[in-house]
């Protein structure tokens, strides 16, 4: 069943990506990227490597995190419920077969498309800084999110009040998706909502680059908002998780701006080489 869900996901996103590239990126950027992709890839290679390492660590850590979390984590499910109450039940007022199908699709297909497309779009920019900032922000989201998942033990609404959200719960209406979600998450990993944080990260970058990709900006914001709502509509996250996800996104975007460029590998190597040459004058080329 997992293979079938993955194939379906790849097919859907595989259709959306080329259509979106044609609509939002344009032929001119694609032509230029074709001749410059090696240089851009070389410049961004360290950032890409860091993200891949983070994803790999995250993949293995998620399997062991629940055990560690039980030993050192704080149980906050009751606290979240006491603070928030039944806020997410407000979304049940718009529950119809159509809205349930929409938010279920957004949670799975829309989310994956939303975080993949900007990677391709920003790679088509001559200056790779925005591309590197996006990847850095992704890595920070995963690192900080994993740490919080270890220290915060919290069950979502679907576990606390299943009868109240049964009509819209993701796995009640689309049981096949549980084979996919359990590969990357556990039911205690709800604070913060990484679906929200990564989606909000994309929306923020879309706002920053709205002059470059004007048509993508409203689409990104609409999708990001839909993803955030879907996490509550489907009974997966509390409103508190969503707010925390937005704050995490803001933090990661700010940190990416400070880290990328300031700590760029090429710049660090250049500075160290200059210092080395200053200390050893005879290395300087004589005129």
UniProtKB/TrEMBL annotation:
<feature type="transmembrane region" description="Helical">
    <location>
        <begin position="44"/>
        <end position="61"/>
    </location>
</feature>
<dbReference type="InterPro" id="IPR000326">
    <property type="entry name" value="PAP2/HPO"/>
</dbReference>
<keyword id="KW-1133">Transmembrane helix</keyword>
<protein>
    <submittedName>
        <fullName>Phosphoesterase PA-phosphatase-related protein</fullName>
    </submittedName>
</protein>
<keyword id="KW-0472">Membrane</keyword>
<feature type="domain" description="Phosphatidic acid phosphatase type 2/haloperoxidase">
    <location>
        <begin position="134"/>
        <end position="257"/>
    </location>
</feature>
<dbReference type="InterPro" id="IPR036938">
    <property type="entry name" value="PAP2/HPO_sf"/>
</dbReference>
<feature type="transmembrane region" description="Helical">
    <location>
        <begin position="216"/>
        <end position="236"/>
    </location>
</feature>
<dbReference type="Pfam" id="PF14378">
    <property type="entry name" value="PAP2_3"/>
</dbReference>
<feature type="transmembrane region" description="Helical">
    <location>
        <begin position="106"/>
        <end position="125"/>
    </location>
</feature>
<feature type="transmembrane region" description="Helical">
    <location>
        <begin position="6"/>
        <end position="24"/>
    </location>
</feature>
<keyword id="KW-0812">Transmembrane</keyword>
<dbReference type="InterPro" id="IPR026841">
    <property type="entry name" value="Aur1/Ipt1"/>
</dbReference>
<dbReference type="GO" id="GO:0016020">
    <property type="term" value="C:membrane"/>
</dbReference>
<feature type="transmembrane region" description="Helical">
    <location>
        <begin position="137"/>
        <end position="156"/>
    </location>
</feature>
